[in-house]
Amino acid sequence: MIDALLNFEFIRYSFISGILIGLIAPLIGTFIVVRRLSLIADALSHVTLGGISFGMFLITAVPLFSEVNPIWTGILFSIVGALLIEKLRSSYKNYQEIAIPIIMSTGIGLSAIFISLADGFNQELVGLLFGSISAVSISDLITIIIIAVIVLLFILLFYKELFILSFDSEYSQVIGIPKWIQFLFIVIVALVISASMRVIGVLLVSALITLPVAIAMRWTKGYKQFIFMSIAIGEFSVITGLISAFYLDISPGGIIVVILVLLLCITMMYQGLLKGKVKGVKAHANE
């Protein structure tokens, strides 16, 4: 593994990208999950898939766009989808959750159309769907670095506002937190999903956003501790998944998700056993 990192650029690109994604995906996930908007990641991932398939269609149908990177069309579609979700949420104030299935269905429909027009699945599209350890180019890495810097700056600059929005949206309106911060947050979520496509896969990235958070919230009490533990779990799963994918020669996205699911199951089983022991001790004391 060390020899591969030293000798092959694409392996280094994948690991650097994975480390950055393991940082920003759970970080943004802590704010999404607390706000009970976990399904937004799924909706935007399907819209991103529509953008990717549109990029693939452009490459095959229009020679002028033969050098277009599908990641950029995926980012464009994801940002538009994020803004549409916010628009729909403001239009259906009493039924805000309806925005998510509307955008998700749109993304799936567009994906089906453009994949068919682009002559179906190919190896690059499969890699974008489920992740690939060999697909990250230097341009992809630069894009991921730029997005990671944007995400970190946004969180640092607006942490207080995001914290209030996450726990009490009504209070945020009372104290006058600008609505554009919420719009920017949704765009940031779209960027994180787009950045994660190459390594994790667009269909699996929502798991990296939500599962580390679901695990961390069972162990922590303070919010900052919650954020740091979510990031640590995300990094562990990504690095372990990439190493496993290298030796098993399979897509890393699936392994990363399975690792996270196993960690969640182990956490729930362990805490279940602890509760059982506590109840047993209390029952014995009452006797």
TrEMBL record:
Signal peptide (residue range): none
Alphabetic keyword roster: Membrane, Transmembrane, Transmembrane helix, Transport
Principal cellular location given in the protein's record: membrane
Pfam families: ABC-3
GO cellular component: ATP-binding cassette (ABC) transporter complex
Segments crossing the lipid bilayer: 12-34, 46-65, 71-86, 98-118, 138-159, 171-193, 199-219, 226-248, 254-274
InterPro entries: ABC_BtuC-like, ABC_TroCD
Subcellular location as annotated: Cell membrane; Membrane
Biological process, per Gene Ontology: response to zinc ion; transmembrane transport
Membrane topology, as annotated: Multi-pass membrane protein
Record-stated family: Belongs to the ABC-3 integral membrane protein family.
Name of protein: ABC transporter permease
Species of the source: Staphylococcus muscae
Lineage: Bacteria, Bacillati, Bacillota, Bacilli, Bacillales
